[in-house]
Specification:
72 residues, mainly alpha, 2 helices, 39% helix
Length: 72
């Protein structure tokens, strides 16, 4: 590896992955919901936060709506 690099001729460019960055949010989830995703995480070897993100992303991409009716 060289001891000195000349960056003066280097052209800057925008980060192409900016749109893919994740936004930190705070959610209040039921304990059983978190426990469910932690179980899945143990089975798959993925972090539970990533599983929740994948599930929510799938819902958003497929435009899934919650089918829920309130009691009269």
């Amino acid at each position: 590896m060289r001891k000195h690099y000349d960056f003066s001729k280097m052209k800057g460019r925008r980060n192409p992955y900016v749109k893919m960055l994740k936004q930190p949010v705070t959610l209040r989830l039921d304990r059983d919901c978190v426990a469910y995703f932690k179980e899945l995480a143990a089975e798959t070897g993925m972090p539970y936060q990533q599983l929740i993100n994948l599930y929510l992303r799938d819902c958003a991409i497929n435009r899934r709506r919650l089918a829920m009716q309130w009691a009269p």
